[in-house]
Design goal:
By secondary structure, the protein is α/β, with parallel strands linked by helices. Among the domains are: about 150 residues, Four Helix Bundle (Hemerythrin (Met), subunit A) (Up-down Bundle); about 140 residues, ABC-type transport auxiliary lipoprotein component (Rossmann fold, 3-Layer(aba) Sandwich), CATH 3.40.50.10610. The chain is about 65% helix and about 5% strand. The protein contains 31 helices and 6 strands. Strands 1, 2, 3, 4, 5 and 6 form a 6-stranded mixed β-sheet that branches. The longest helix is centred in the N-terminal third of the chain and has 23 residues. The protein is globular.
């Protein structure tokens, strides 16, 4: 039994007392009382506080909260005496304490209890404020429903409900069917990720175990899960056979296994098997699936078999992320769209290709941006319940249109629809950093790393967060670890550059910067004499800057990357010039301006740019 079971039961009773009256708060509390994981409890406690403070901002301060940090709103409510001082104290305590849960090394489980106690105090006061009567202790005790539910969730198993789906083995004689077998695995994984009561490791972290023969307990330990799903499949003509099993890792006990043999006459034949597998696994692990989650799992995104087949091929090539593979991917997504003009995921795939081309510098933002936005809006028009579409829109709004509120709304929607969505959590953490909300950013960054612990992209993005948190030594260490996993990582180069620069190690910063530009702009670096980089890093940077600027006429170089060179050189005038160009050209890295160019914050010209971006100074 968890040390905070009493506190959760109390919150369950409170939630029962106002059912159907405050849907926003009810939804967050309902999720909170279903979990035992301390990090998740911290996250949902904070989200409950957000709902309450946002409403108070509108009712008492007569204005929308937008993206303002919670602390600022709480301080204003206190200053204008809109909320009793003892409630303000509990709000500040919850707001502060919940962020410590995001530090795994410093985390003490006892910190969960005061957070939950403060949430109870705040919620009871808020219900009185809204004119909702709270039943006394005796009348609440007479309702055993919430207590029973919580007791079942605890008594069902002593193990955390955490699972990894290993890459399915392709038993087909034809390697060309790999895309189909991968698609089966990814859809089973995707369905499990929609279940909030289950912690699921992301695809990228399990990919390293493809064709490996490590023992199951060792794999589970490395990924930090209690259960493993294994599968193998064959596709022959219009039929496929899939064998799958669920294993309790510690004892290598086979909890469930089944063989599916299916002739594919309609696309439903594939989706029915995939949804059955997810539901069987959830049933075996005694996981609660809500009616909304069940509906999402059983949803059929297209009725055209050829469209789905083309989409799977598009996904297969998109994951390779080279310029040539992105072109092949786009061809298949376009084919899927032609086969079924109402297939939302085909449009989401097209959008992802253009975002990928823009982020990698293959296509200028003024070309890629409109094409990505058009595809994303079409996808949303066709399907508003697709987490991937909302995630794609969040990227578009944040890095393409600099619309922070729309970006945040879309990230929240994506995470609501698919709680185990590490990419959404990690990029949302970056947006929260742009908005100067580091405590919330850290919570989502840690959730992303927990859900996808071996993904070099997620680790690199987490290291970027550490740079923003001024934890430079930790960031640099992670940057080097990413380079061992992926020697071509431009993000790792960025992390090492600015972590080392802020630590005063300019030689190491130079190494990182050459890695960054070599990965992202090989045409700029090739042919340059960099032999004296360590001896005279300023001269080397000046040479790279000159070449990059001249190169823009032939091949696009992002303005903010050029501004970074001048930051390292200490040329403030040039930093301002290229930051302004970045905003003008809608550089997708422009939102990072306040976090990267920290030393420029006192410059009035730089402050004006920040205001133009509608970011907090």
């Amino acid at each position: 039994m968890s040390i905070w079971t009493i506190e959760l039961n109390e919150l369950g009773k409170i939630q029962e007392s106002f059912k159907g009256q405050l849907p926003g708060l009810e939804k967050e509390l309902e999720q909170l009382i279903r979990f035992d994981d301390p990090n998740v409890l911290m996250l949902y406690s904070r989200r409950c506080l957000e709902v309450i403070v946002t409403d108070l901002c509108e009712c008492e301060l007569k204005r929308p909260r937008k993206t303002e940090p919670l602390k600022g709103i709480i301080d204003k409510l206190n200053k204008e005496e809109k909320v009793p001082s003892h409630i303000i104290t509990s709000m500040h305590s919850l707001n502060s304490l919940s962020t410590y849960g995001a530090h795994p090394k410093d985390f003490d489980p006892e910190q969960v209890r005061p957070v939950l106690n403060n949430l109870s105090i705040i919620t009871k006061w808020y219900l009185k404020y809204k004119g909702i009567e709270i039943p006394g202790p005796e009348s609440v005790e007479e309702k055993p429903k919430m207590t029973t539910t919580r007791k079942q969730a605890i008594d069902i198993t002593m193990f955390e409900k955490s699972v990894a789906v290993l890459p399915f083995r392709n038993d087909s004689p034809d390697e060309e069917n790999t895309y189909f077998i991968n698609g089966l695995m990814e859809e089973v994984l995707n369905n499990l990720q929609k279940i909030r009561d289950l912690r699921v490791i992301s695809r990228t972290s399990v990919e390293q175990y493809r064709n490996q023969t490590k023992p199951i307990p060792e794999i589970a330990k490395e990924l930090g899960v209690n259960y493993i799903v294994e599968g193998s499949a064959q596709k022959y003509g219009n039929s496929f056979r899939l064998r799958i099993q669920l294993i309790m890792a510690a004892r290598e006990d086979h909890l469930w296994g089944e063989s599916f043999q299916q002739k594919i006459t309609e696309v439903e034949d594939i989706f029915i098997v995939q949804s059955q597998i997810a539901e069987k696994i959830a049933q075996e692990l005694k996981v609660v699936i809500t009616p909304e989650e069940k509906q999402l799992i059983e949803k059929i995104p297209t009725e055209k078999l050829e469209a789905y087949d083309a989409y799977l091929k598009g996904q297969f090539y998109w994951r390779r992320l080279t310029s040539q593979d992105l072109d092949i991917s786009l061809k298949y997504f376009e084919m899927a769209k032609e086969k079924d003009p109402n297939f939302a995921l085909a449009y989401a795939g097209i959008c992802d290709v253009w975002i990928g081309r823009q982020q990698m510098g293959h296509t200028p933002p003024d070309v890629a941006g409109p094409l990505a936005y058009e595809a994303a809006m079409k996808a949303l028009e066709l399907d508003k319940t697709c987490a991937e579409v909302h995630y794609t829109l969040a990227l578009m709004y944040t890095w393409g249109m600099f619309d922070w509120q729309a970006g945040e709304d879309s990230f929240k929607k994506a995470i609501d629809l698919k709680p185990a969505y590490p990419e959404a959590h990690i990029y949302y953490s970056h947006l929260l950093n742009f908005l100067e909300r580091p405590e919330e950013a850290r919570i989502h960054a840690d959730l992303a790393l927990k859900q996808d612990p071996a993904n070099p992209l997620v680790i690199a993005l987490y290291a970027v967060d550490l740079v923003f948190f001024h934890e430079y030594e930790k960031a640099s260490k992670l940057g080097n670890e990413v380079l061992e996993m992926d020697p071509t990582s431009a993000l790792a180069g960025f992390v090492i550059t600015f972590a080392s620069f802020n630590l005063g190690d300019y030689s190491k910063a130079m190494e990182g910067f050459i890695k960054l530009f070599s990965s992202q702009y090989p045409g700029v670096i090739e042919g340059l004499d960099l032999s004296g980089a360590k001896r005279d890093y300023k001269k080397t940077l000046e040479l790279i800057a000159e070449t990059a600027i001249n190169n823009r006429k032939k091949s696009y170089v992002l303005p903010m990357d050029i501004a970074q060179i001048f930051l390292l050189l200490g040329d403030k005038d040039k930093v301002i010039e290229w930051c302004e160009k970045g905003i003008e050209e809608r550089d997708p890295n422009a939102p990072y301006i306040a976090q990267i160019f920290v030393s420029m914050r006192d410059d009035p010209r730089f402050q004006q740019i920040i205001r133009k971006m509608n970011l907090p100074i």
